Amino acid sequence: MSYSLIDNTEKKQYEFHIDGDLARIEYIKAQGKIFLTHTEVPVKFEGKGIGSALVKQVLDDIQQKGLTLVPLCPFVSAYINRHPEYNTLISK
User: What is the DSSP letter of 57?
Assistant: First the structure.
């Protein structure tokens, strides 16, 4: 299943809208860096790969925009540990 990523700059979060529900990753942007602070997926969608799909699309967007990542969210950090190709995004 494919979802459209929305960068809701007003609420400072990336979003998937799924059947009236919202999966999201909250962020803070400052000085060319993006801090991913919290990932939330509705309980009824947990374990279905939606969180991972959201993180992947967010990381691809960050890469495309040339931002430096600071992964404060444990879920995002765990995803990057499983997908080391995204290590190049992380602030040193």
Answer: H
Sheet holding 13-18, edge to edge: 6-8, 13-18, 21-30, 33-40, 68-71
Percent of the chain with pLDDT over 90: 91
Pairing of the two strands 21-30 and 33-40? antiparallel
Closest CA to 16 of 39, 47, 36: 39
Residues 9, 18 contacting (CB under 8 angstroms): no
| Residue corresponding to tokens 């997908």 | 83
Residue 24 has pLDDT above 90, yes or no: yes
Percent of all residues in the chain with a pLDDT value above 70, rounded to a whole number: 99
